[in-house]
Design goal:
The protein is α/β, with parallel strands linked by helices. Helices cover 56% and strands 14% of the residues. The chain has a 5-stranded parallel β-sheet, sandwiched between helices. The longest helix has 18 residues, at 155-172.
Length: 173
């Protein structure tokens, strides 16, 4: 039985895109916890933030991620803030192989600039907000099993690198 693979990192790094590619190549179930939360609440994430608040969302996120971690042979893309949650982080580290997808802030800012569905990026100070979020979250992201700097990798090479790490881990355990 293969352990789950969890991709974490800032919004806009490509967790969902890469997870879909890896899932297809490895025959793993793909799970996007944010999409599951949206489906369960019949609202987009930004609407949940607006109508029910961030605390409600974080509780939903905790329930969803913990539920997904109880499955096997899945690749799970978690939201950018999920790994900050101690319970989520401890469960991810115990029950899965975790990979932090890191990317420079300039590229993240470009990727998220025109996306008005990012609830934490609703103002004119998005570069400043991204920088603050990154520096708050980096100390948690560093606890992941692996880190990949995705800046110089295209999505196929990134997926290949993730698969290599995943298979290497499976062979040693």
């Amino acid at each position: 039985m293969k352990k789950n693979l969890v991709l974490l990192g800032m919004m806009g790094v490509g967790k969902t895109t890469i997870a879909k590619i890896v899932a297809k190549k490895q025959g793993l179930e793909f799970i996007d916890t944010d999409k599951n939360i949206e489906k369960k609440n019949s609202m987009k994430i930004y609407e949940i933030f607006e109508k029910k608040g961030e605390n409600f969302f974080r509780l939903e996120e905790e329930k969803e991620v913990l539920k997904c971690l109880n499955k096997n042979e899945c690749i799970i893309a978690i939201g950018g803030g999920a790994f900050v949650n101690k319970l989520i982080r401890e469960s991810v580290l115990k029950k899965s192989i975790s990979i932090w997808l890191d990317l420079n802030l300039k590229t993240i800012a470009l990727r998220t600039k025109w996306n008005n569905r990012r609830p934490l990026l609703k103002g004119n100070n998005n570069d400043k907000i991204l920088k603050e979020l990154y520096h708050q979250r980096k100390k948690f992201y560093k606890l992941a099993d692996h880190k990949i700097n995705c800046g110089k990798l295209n999505k196929n090479n990134l997926a290949k690198k993730i698969i290599e790490l995943y298979e290497k881990y499976q062979n040693y355990n």
